[in-house]
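Appendix C reproduces, verbatim, an entry submitted by the partner laboratory led by Prof. M.T., so that reviewers can inspect both the input and the predicted structure.
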Amino acid sequence: MTKRYFTESNIFEPVITEYLNADDFLKDYTKGTFKIVFIDICMEGMNGIELSQRIRRNDKDIIIIFISTTTEFVFKTFKALPHGYLCKPYSFEEFSETMDRAVEKFSYQPHELTVKVPRNEEKIYAENILWVITDLHDVNIKMITGQTIRSISSYTEIAKKLL
């Protein structure tokens, strides 16, 4: 189904690797090696929930999709912040809906804006802004890093860029 999904959606050509158990997977796994992992909950040795928790400790970006023959484990998977849970047997339509939600993450583009600062310009991401406040002639932009950027752009200019 994975090959069919990517062929029909024409997104990219996936590299698919299969593992028989969690230990074999962990031997090859390093952060960034995999974009999407399908994890069967019931495996020999370490189960899928334990595996997902180990993965998630190091990798907040990896897309995890659980697979099981029962829905009894759904709530136990929440700690791993999965992008889906497929109950066997599942249809290609169910698989595609799950993959569509997962693949949306790849197409996300952060909203970058340029603001004028004294004698220069600075590029910042809107997602990193906590607040914007005007102080007479200057505009102060508080970032999630704790940094405050003093901009000479007008508040109206910045507000338009944020919209």
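The chain has five helices and eight strands. Additional entries are available on request from the coordinating office.
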